[in-house]
Design a protein that fits this description.
mainly alpha
Length: 94
């Protein structure tokens, strides 16, 4: 059941981000999704007995960490001028 839910969240969230509609909401949901993925699967698969710097280097090379940083950046700075959110904001201000 969770497979269908998570894949639906990622598909719909990715589509919303692609066109730039409800970007902050989609980023928030996908951010939680990636944090759960990192905490439940990726951390347990990390090699044990490594020095802290080597462990941090391995951790920062995970693709989910890049996604988390990307979603935080999009939440802070917005989707940009070529998005549906920007177009709707211009229409609503008139």
């Amino acid at each position: 059941m969770m497979t269908y839910f998570v894949s639906s969240v990622e598909f719909v969230g990715g589509c919303l981000l692609t066109v730039g509609f409800l970007s902050s909401l989609a980023c928030g949901v996908l951010l939680v999704d990636m944090l759960v993925a990192v905490l439940t699967t990726r951390l347990s698969a990390m090699p044990k007995g490594r020095s802290p710097l080597n462990w941090l280097g391995d951790f920062l090379y995970l693709p989910e960490v890049l996604y988390v940083l990307f979603f935080i950046w999009l939440i802070c700075f917005g989707p940009g001028k070529f998005s549906v959110d920007y177009w709707l904001a211009g229409k609503l201000q008139r």
